[in-house]
Amino acid sequence: MKRILLTLFGLSLVGCAPDITETDFFSRHPDAPVGDESVEVTSVQDGALELRVTAPRPLQWGHNLISLEAFAGGDPAGAEATVTPYFLVEGDRIPVPFDPVTLRSGDEPAVLYLLEPVELDGRWVLDVVWQSAGSSGTRTVDVTVRPGLWVGTVPGTGEYLTWVRPTEPRTGQDVLELALHRFIEGRFQPVEGVPFDLYPYMDMGGGEGHSTPYAPPGSVGNGRYRGEINFIMSGGWDLTVYVGANRTAVLFEGFEVR
Q: pTM of the full predicted structure?
């Protein structure tokens, strides 16, 4: 059942939130702009063909936007690549519980999800399988992945809560999708049948703030939970997710709605 929270400000205030750079949200915002230049995740050189997998910011736990660029003799070229991430622990590849990513040069960025078991020491690797006209190959590369906003651990449960979408929160009605996993016997396993509730909150400063309308996520299978949220204003937000019958809180703190 859709639940609507009372708000202190009406929908007419969309876009009137404080500038995120003037609030404490900016200081704890992991996705602060890094400039116009993209970050190179990896590159492949095969004769005259050059492939570059890029991202708008360094890789982090949770969702990442990545793109493929291809050049032949310095000119743009058509190419396709499949990127599969693993967390490597003493030679054992721990797969991420999300699908591999297929990239095509010239297409919009795709979403790469990374989920790391926090109790293990290891390193991240990406398998990149690529093909272009008359050329193909496979490369395994080490990458650096930093902790990120989009994954939280549920206290006292050993469960991982991943914010799946929206990957770029914006004002207006949107689908909110979360994923819940537990790490068992060296693999991530989906957790089913868990009730959720939400508390979105925007701090307006001076002790003032407000929430926004939402519908709590419900199970859609395979550890995924889907609901709705309507961010009525751009700016800095927090989202508390209450997990399970005990309403254990996981906080996604200081993200930006554009």
A: 0.85
- CA end-to-end span of the chain, whole Å? 27
Which candidate, 80, 86, 65, 58, places its Cα nearest to that of 144?
58
Which pairs with CB-CB distance under 8 Å and at least 24 residues apart come from 31-40? Answer: 31/57, 31/149, 31/255, 31/256, 34/58, 38/67
Predicted local confidence at residue 133, as pLDDT: 87
Q: Per residue in 13-63, pLDDT tens?
A: 444 444 545 545 445 554 544 455 689 999 988 888 999 999 998 999 999
> For the chain, which residues score pLDDT lower than 50?
1-18, 20, 23, 25-26, 30, 32-34
Q: Give the tokens for residue 72.
A: 């032949």
> Alpha-carbon distance 83 to 92, whole Å?
18
CA–CA dist 178, 21 (Å, integer): 27
Distance, in Å, from the CA atom of 162 to the CA atom of 150, rounded to the nearest integer, reads: 6
At 64, the amino acid letter reads N
Q: Supply φ then ψ for residue 257, to 5 degrees.
A: -105, 130
User: Residue 10 and residue 48: Cα distance in Å, rounded?
Assistant: 57
Q: What is the DSSP letter of 12?
A: G
- Between CA 214 and CA 237 the distance in angstroms is 14
* Cα dihedral 161/235/60/35 (nearest 10): 170
Q: What is the pLDDT of residues 73-91, one digit of tens each?
A: 889 999 999 999 999 999 9
Closest Cα partner for 5 from 235, 258, 231? 231
CB 223 within 8 A of CB 134: no
- Tokens 């799946």 — which residue? 164
Alpha helices of the chain — where are they, by DSSP H? 24-27
